[in-house]
Every structure is written in structure tokens, then in C-alpha cells.
Amino acid sequence: MGYAAARGGLKAIEAAERLVARERILGESSWLESRQMIEKLRLAVDRVMGEGGLWDEHLAASALRQAEGDPIEAAHLLRSFRSTLPRLAYTTPVDVDDMVVLRRIVPAFRNPPGPQLLGRTTDYTGRLLHTADEDTLREGAEKTAALLREAVVTDSDHDDPGDSERRPRRLLELLRELDAVVDRRRSDDPEPFDITRHPARPPATRSARLATMARAETGALVNVWYRNILGPDGYLHEITLGEVRHGRLPVTVIHPITGDEVSVTDVRVTEVEAIEDLDGIEEDRGRFDVGYGLCFGHNEKKAIAMANLDIACERDKGRSFLEQSILLTTDGLDASGFLEHLKLPHYVTFRSMMERKAAIRRHKESS
Amino acid sequence: MNTSLLKQVLGENVDEEDSTHVADVNFGLLDEYSKREIRRAILTAVAVPGYQVPFGSREMPVARGWGSGGLQISLGIVGPDDVVKVIDQGDDEGVNAVNLRRLIVSSTGIPESTTPEDSTLIQTRHRIPEDPLDERHVLVLQVPVPEPLRGVERDMRELARMHAEADYARMWVSLYEDKVRNGVITRTTGYPCLVNGRYVIATTPIPRWDVPRLHRSRFLSLFGAGREKRIYAVPPHTDVEPLTFEDVPFEVEITPGATCRTCGSSESFLVEVPASSADDRGHWVCSDSDWCRRRRERSLHPSRGVNT
After folding, report:
1. pLDDT at B277
2. Looking at CA atoms only, how far is residue B99 from chain A in angstroms?
3. Choosing among B31, B35, B95, B291, which should be mutated to test the A contact, i.e. which has the most A CBs within 10 A?
4. Which pLDDT score, from 0 to 100, does residue B255 have?
5. Model confidence at A286: pLDDT above 70
6. Predicted-assembly ipTM surpassing the 0.95 threshold
7. CA geometry: angle B38, B44, B49, nearest 5 deg
8. Using CB atoms within 10 A of its CB, is residue A293 exposed (0-12), middle (13-18) or buried (19+)?
9. φ/ψ of residue A253, rounded to 5
């Protein structure tokens, strides 16, 4: 019988766990090192940290290995690990102008203030699959690596753009000087909404929306964006990117005993400012507005979708379901967990449905 | 982590024993602050029966939709003197029940049981045990969809208003239309009920069979929806009335003539085992496997009593 196989309790579960562990350990390849994943599968590790809401490259790599490469599952491992830890402190607010950029592009201007710094990107690289056999690829990579190591020793860092270029001005500053953007800056300083301690529900604060998107599943956020561009929803239009940055931000906390600010780590983040053309009847047609996106790691897709959705939500002012879609449907753990729960036994509910089907049929036959 | 530093940071609530737990795995897995937050939400839920209390649902070692809300309640209230029973579809041996029980037991060290008589904390998905429960028991129900009105309204802002004003008119209209179109009310499990004359709740997907057993029950029922971040409660001795019309009686699942093939019961919730071959006509069995087992054993060995 079908469900007899899915019963069987502890023994069956333990056997399934052993099978997973065994298949992961066996095989001809060597142990997959965290270091390797951090260096060579950087974007996967970054994505797991972002969706897991926890900055720790080694834990994220561990989670990715344990999850056999499934980023949502890996994010789940990180988040449930975090649930076992007490929250000891909050960081002090970070000034994003302290970011040391590794990459920065400004599509809105040919020569913006500050550099156009491509950094580590494959944006302009032909997507040509390396089809040579693995030994050849490895040999080539090792040779190149040797040459590069040599070059670093002999070459002075004449390509490095220098500190001022690493902390460039923002395009937004220029736009403000030109009085080209509406000013939505607020003078009060509300506490940010903590989505890990309170459920964010519409109507929500902007910080709740931003935090939700920063931790959202990348694919889900890209999809919400796209279905609003092309799909049935249509609550947003395309922005112009003012800033796309990837860089390092210092994280500081107040020391619980000395009371001093201490830097505890730095994190890599992707930051996006999106310029929106205000074209609504009641809006300031003479100016732009700006949406904001920031997430852990190098994940430009996510930060861009976030910035566009941020400004779309501001403009929407709760008229549509956009905010509810963002707050309620973009979390990877929520969506995939609920989808996968369909695999659980449902024979009690199904029995109840069968009984009602029979009742409806009986009624139709008798009337 | 350094214990004295931890104490300074965490404040008064941490003693030596707890801090070693924190460093390893805390009693009940969650940290003490999270447990306190969950307990506060539960207290609010008990004080306002049927009201869905928002809480900062934690990510658990089980996926959302797999009992993470029920698990948080269980781990939030469990104490060293508790005995836990976990069922899924009424079955203690269902794989997810086994996994949840394993998590509760391994993170607390408390004993487990399959018998309600011996248990104090019963976590369940989709069923209430057939045995009568009483003041000793807390029933924790895993809730996939806590919002009873979602079928008639999708906008959460409007839903909040409807509950706040007890405006359940559209729910009544939908039940009326259902009856008019189909001749019967076609709602299956999770039947909407009015609690304490005030809030309409979703009775998780427990079958209609179990709904009358929530009415003025002697036990406390706690409903946990982890994914949707809601906790609600039916305190003991509280009215739970299924929404129906004066001239349309509430109907539970009954199939005339069906009895459990294993224990012969016709007074329990039965699930169908379909025919597996041409000469097999299929049969029925109790969904509460432990209740069924004890009935069977009692009929074989009457001297052992009900709860062996």
C-alpha cells in the first residue's frame, strides 16, 4: 500500500538520513572544502548568506555543502541555526558612504562624479562554455595562477584607483544639487522594523519592506519584478540605475562592558540606487525619485529588483497588492517550505473531501 | 562563549546551567528570549480567545509548512516534567510526527508517549486524539493557514478590519451561496468556527468530526502558524460554534456502515484504505492509531484496562 511505505517511523527516517550522508561522502572526488566554495562558488555562498540573513562565509559554505548545493535549503540551515542563538547586541547604524567599493557603475551618466569601476564582473563577457576537458582547463588555470602570483609581487598596484576613488561620491548628491529629485528625507529617526522579531504585514514601514527584500529569495524577487514589468500586475516601470555598487562595509557594535564602539567585522554588500521618472498625475513631474536596494554579498540582480520595487511601493501608496506580494510571497523558506509540505500525508483532509463529494452527489441524485 | 560575559549581556535570567545550555543547545532548542516571546503571544491568545496574535516566528529545524508553528509553541512551553505525544493524521508513527517528536525529545530530554493518558503535551497535525482530554493536557495544533476569511478576501488590511469589527457577513454569504448551489455546505476540514462569540477561527485542517470536541473542552488548545506568524488559542470551557444556519445542521464525516477493520470501531474518525486488487473491496481503519491499538488489545486482554 502506498502510505505504508511512507510510514515506518524512526527506522525509515534514519535510513534515509544515512543514504543522504553516504552518497555525499562516497564517490571518487575529495572532500569539498569550505575554502573552495568561498573562493570558487562565491556567488552561491553570497546568495546563501543574503537569503539566510547571516553574514558568515564559512557557515554559509558549510550549509551549502550540507544542502548538496540547494541555496534555499542552505539558507534554511543558516536561519534555523540562528534561531538557537540569543541576540546579544544590535550593530550601530552603518553609513553606507563608508563603503569601500570593489565595483561601481553608474548607467545614468557617461562620466558621472567618481569612477566607473567595473571590478569583478562577467557582464561584458561572452557566455561561452569552456568545453575543453577538465585536465586541460585545470592545467591552464594553474599556469595562469603561477604567472599572476609572480605579477603581484613585481607589479606595484598602479591600477588601484586609490582611496578617494574607492569611496566615490554618489550620483544622488549631484542630482540633489541640481534639484532634480524630490526630497523624501525625513527628519525623525524611527527605529528600523525588525522582521526577525515581528511579522511584517501591510501596511508596513519602508524599513520592513527593505529588510524583507534584502532577505528574500533572489529568484522570487526577480520574478515579482518581472511580472510587474511584463506580467499581469504592472505596478512598476523601469528605472534608470544611478548607482550599482559592490563593496565592503564596516560593522560596529557598542561593547557591552566598555561602552565603546568596536568594529567587529566588515561585510560585502551590493547597493543600488534606482532613479524613477515620476509620471503620475499627482506627482512632481519636474523631478525624479529614487529607490534603494541593499543586500549581503555580491548579488546585483537582487539589489536592482529591490531598488525598483522599493520606489514602486512608495509610489503605489498601498493602492495595489504590490506591498503584500513583497512582504508575504518572496521569502524562500516560506514559499518552498509550504510547497514541499504537500508531500506530507493528507489522508485525513482527503477523507473529509471525499465525504463531501459523496454528500454533494447524494444531494444531486435525490433532488 | 565566556560565561561571565554572557551573563552580563543577557542579564538576570541566566544561571550557570542555562549558560552551558546556550553555549551548546538550549533546553528546547530556542534561546530563552525567543521562548519568552512565544509564551507572551500565547498568553495574549488565551486572554483573547480566537484572536490571531502576531509573533516573530523563528526559523526552525523543520521547513515552514511542516509544523514549525506548532513546534515553536511546544518548545516555548515545554518543561522538564512534561511528557510529549506527537501525531500526524492521528498517527504517532507518521514520518513527520516522528521527526518532530525526535526534535522535542532530543532537545529537552523529556519522555515521550503515544498514550494521551500518560502525556501532558500533545502536538498534532490534522487530528484531535479520540481519547477524552482534560485539564492535564495542552493540545498544540499545527496550522498551515490561520486565516479563515482568506477564501472571501485576499487583502490583509481588509481582513484585519473584518476581524476587528467582527464583520463576518461575507463569510455567511459564502456559506449561504455554497448551500444554495450545492445543496450541502461543502466545507471539508478546517471548518470556520466562532470562538467565545467573538472571533471566527480556522480550525486548522482538523476534520469536522473533531470540531465539536473543541467546544467547551476541558483542555487548552493552542494553534501555531509558523509560516504566517500567528498564534491563537481556544482556552478550556470556551464556546466553539461551527458557522451554520439554524435550519442547516452542522455535519461531521460519517459513512453509514463503515467500521474499523482492525478494532471494529464505528465511533471514531475512520480513513479509507482503498481496494488494492479486484477481489478486495477496500476497508476502513481508525486514523487515531494508538487509540485503535489500545481498543484492540483491550478486547484481546480485557484485564489490562484502557491505557495499556
Report:
1. 84
2. 8
3. B95
4. 87
5. yes
6. no
7. 120
8. buried
9. -130, 160
